[in-house]
Structure formats: C-alpha cells, structure tokens
From TrEMBL:
Pfam families: HTH_Tnp_1 (PF01527)
Organism the protein comes from: Psychroserpens luteus
InterPro entries in alphabetical order: Homeodomain-like_sf, Transposase_8, WH-like_DNA-bd_sf
UniProt keywords, alphabetically: Coiled coil
The UniProt record lists the keyword Protein biosynthesis: no
Protein name, entry field: Transposase
Length: 123
C-alpha cells in the first residue's frame, strides 16, 4: 500500500442507527463510541445530519460575563415562580370543578355541563 491509499468503509443502515441510538442513551460520548467502533467523528456527524438528529450534535453555550450569569439565575427563578403559579392555578381549577360536581349532584343535574347551561340562562 502507498501512503495516500485510504480504506473506504461502508456501514450498513442498521449499524448507523445503532451508533446513533447508543449516542442517544448517553452511556458513551461521541468520542468514546468513535474509539470503540473505530469510526471517525466526522463520519458520525454526517450520520447525525443525514438522520436529522441535531439533538446529538455537541452544542455548547458559553457564559462569560457576570451579567449573563445573573440574568440566567434571574430567569431560572422566574421559571420556578411561573411553575408554582401554574400549579396553583391548576389546583384552583380542580377545586372549582369538584365544587361544581357536588353542586350539580346536590341540585339533581346529570352533569356539570347541564348545571352550567342552566346557570347561564338565569339572569
């Protein structure tokens, strides 16, 4: 063989999908899988693009300034507050629905919809 001769490998579709599946599980990193199966990282990147698995690409967000860090912390705090507010709203809606069920049953209606319909007709 000459210095510039390269071996061209062909991989089957199931093999490619197997590698992507293993990458998805997160058990191994891309570089570990490449070493394990003797595959070039660029080849795996081609497969990721081919099968439209952009979630498997190594994308990183680099935060450098204190302003960015404080902004991220503020946003995380806001997300937590919104989650709590949403949970409270859902609980309030469930309680209201329960009250309506009891009221409908006590007043002799077959369903909440029937009670709501009756209530909306009255002035």
């Amino acid at each position: 063989m000459y210095k510039n001769d390269k071996v061209i490998r062909r991989y089957s579709e199931p093999f490619k999908l197997k590698i992507l599946a293993e990458l998805t599980t997160g058990k191994h990193t891309k570089s570990e899988l490449c070493k394990l199966y003797s595959i070039a990282p660029t080849t795996v990147n081609v497969w990721i693009k081919k099968y439209n698995r952009k979630d498997l690409m190594n994308t990183r967000v680099k935060v450098e300034t204190k302003d960015e860090i404080s902004r991220i912390k503020a946003l995380q705090k806001e997300i937590e507050q919104l989650k709590k507010l949403l949970l409270k709203k859902d609980l309030d809606a469930m309680i209201e629905e329960s009250y309506l069920e009891v009221a409908a049953e006590d007043l002799g209606y077959k369903s909440i919809a029937e009670l709501k319909k009756k209530l909306s007709i009255k002035p």
